Amino acid sequence: MNSTLVKAKLETNPATAIRILAGITFSLVIINIIIQFAIYSFGLKKEWFLLFNMDKEVNLPTLFSCALLLICASLISLIKRKSKRINITNQRKWNVLKWIFIFLTLDEGLQIHELFIIPSIKPIMPPILTVIWVIPYGIFSIFSIIYFMPLITSLPRKLKHMTLFSGMIYLIGVLGFEMIGSFLVRTGDIKLHGISYGLISTLEETLEMIGLILFIYTLMIYIFDHQKQKLKIIFHLSKSEKVITRSNYQ
Which residues neighbour 201 within 8 Å (Cβ) at sequence distance 6 or greater? Predict the structure, then answer.
């Protein structure tokens, strides 16, 4: 079958990509806040609220978070491919980091961390650790920071600071506000199903998204400005009008 090969080079501007992701995040947060007040202040309970409620799972905010994590994994994979020619140790660490983000994507979508919540243990745990999964994930985070610190310090100064800052924002969201919400509910300061907890959950998810978006921006700068990789999109056009698209970085 004869086909025509068309090559097109697309140079993506990191700032443009981040503005799009930030715009989606802002929209989801605003819709969610409106929904929280509609539910807990006005008693409105519509089925479609679940689609945007950040206090619930398997909906559009969850899907967006999974997409952000998967983008991180994809960008890390590109960096790893290029770093293979430079430093085998760093290349190995990039590969480990890629698989961590793939796991986090699955965890976000399938709620794997919920398996660590054992109801019989909850009563004997301190209020701040009622959500038991923060313990193993917190320990894993500490070991990860130690393991990846040599890789982080090897980055250009600006990117090193951006990486640390994005990681701090993400961990404050995913672990810090999870523990804060758990503590306030356990001590009776707020209700589990109330506007205060809903807003804490909103802030938690928002910080997670901001941390991921900042990290995506950092990775893109590293790819385009420091590794000098360019995106090429290749289209295979056949007589049967079947279009096959492949993208890679050079």
Answer: 54, 55, 177, 181
Q: Are 3 and 238 in contact (CB under 8 A)?
A: yes
Q: Can you spell out the DSSP letters for 225-249?
A: IIS---EEEEEEEETT--EEEEEEE
Contact 65, 201 (CB under 8 A): no
In a domain, 64, yes or no: yes
Q: List, for residues 155-188, the tens digit of each pLDDT value.
A: 999 999 999 999 999 999 999 999 999 999 999 9
CB 4 within 8 A of CB 243: no
Question: Could you give the strand order of the β-sheet that contains 243-249, starting from the edge strand earlier in sequence?
Answer: 3-10, 231-238, 243-249
Q: Which residues of 115-140 are buried (b: 16+ CB within 10 A; e: fewer)?
A: eeeeeeeeeeeeebbbbbbbeebbee
Instruction: State how far the Cα of 169 lies from the Cα of 73, in Å rounded to an integer.
Output: 18
In-domain check, residue 161 = yes
Q: Which domain holds residue 67?
A: 14-227
Is 239 contained in some domain?
no
Structure tokens that stand for 210 in this block: 């901001």
Q: Domain tally for the chain?
A: 1
**For the whole model, what pTM was predicted?**
0.86
Tell me, yes or no, whether 242 lies in a domain: no
